[in-house]
Structure formats: C-alpha cells, structure tokens
Amino acid sequence: MKRDIALKxxxxxxxxxxxxxxxxxxxxxxxxxxxxxxETGDWTMVKEEQIxxxxxxxxxxxxxxxxxxxxxxxxxxxxxxxxxxxxxxIMDENHLLHDLHxxxxxxxxx
Length: 110
Hints:
- The structure is a single chain.
- The relative contact order is 0.12.
- The chain is mainly alpha-helical.
- The chain has 5 helices and 2 strands.
- It has a two-stranded antiparallel ribbon with strand order 1-2.
- The longest helix has 13 residues, at 48-60.
- The N and C termini lie far apart (66 Å).
C-alpha cells in the first residue's frame, strides 16, 4: 500500500508520520550561577544555594517576609544581578512562596 493512501485511511498527516520526538524539553536550561557586584566594583558568580540562603535569611524576619517580587527587588539592592523569573523559580522550588490571596466573591444585585 502506498504511503499517502495509508495515511489518508489512518487520518494521520505526513508531519505526524515523520515526526521524531527528541525527548528533551524545549528552551534553555536554567543557569546555576548569578552575577553579584562586589564592593571593589568587580563581578563574581554566585551559586543558587547562596542566593537561597540569602532569601531564607530575609524571610526569617517578619518585616521582610516578602513575596517573590519584593524579594527580587531586595536582591537587586543587595547587588545580585537576578531576574524576577529566576527569583520566582528559586522560591517556588524551595516552597518559600506565599499562598495566593483569595478575594471574596463579589455580590451582585438581584
């Protein structure tokens, strides 16, 4: 049987027939290091574990128990050159995020 006829009977397109899955997830792998500006003006690369320790230390104090957005801003003030998405990922992987705020449902006039 010819390929085109068999594909038409099985309702499979040519693209589906020839597709080979690589098994890898698309996109770039997350980096393990983050640049930090030192007092001397030099840059150094810091591992994620050190950033996690800084975040955990900041969250111990109730006044600085921030969510990921304020924690990202606090890390920038501490001279860590970090992206907000990376701050979210680190806090999410280590269960340091706050629970979502649920708003009460709105009452409508009947």
